[in-house]
Amino acid sequence: QVQLVESGGGLVQAGGSLTLSCAAAGRTFTIRPMAWFRQPPGKEREFVASISPGGYNTYYADSVKGRFTISRDDAKNTMYLQMNSLKPEDTAVYSCAAGAMSNTPRDYGYWGQGTQVTVSS
Fold this sequence. Notes:
This protein is mostly beta strands and 121 residues long. Helices cover 0% and strands 50% of the residues.
């Protein structure tokens, strides 16, 4: 069974950068991470970015476009999120998801446990 594991979260000052990773591990590697979501404090989970197999197509929420870059390494079955020019409103638990290619959380069947990103002023 495939499991997704996020890493790279932490505490940064506004304007700083972080890179998140999402690795798919287990006995099989047939499920590929496709999207990043985040859940700010007191808010519902929201779409951040997605990427198709091979990286041919990428999609970004308007709130992060121009600041975040999603990428993947299919050989490692790992997905990344480079976050630049971070703002306090980016503070959230960031989760990766697999099993779909959409901006709707309930479309995805596989999730990591999430990694906390905190951006201070």
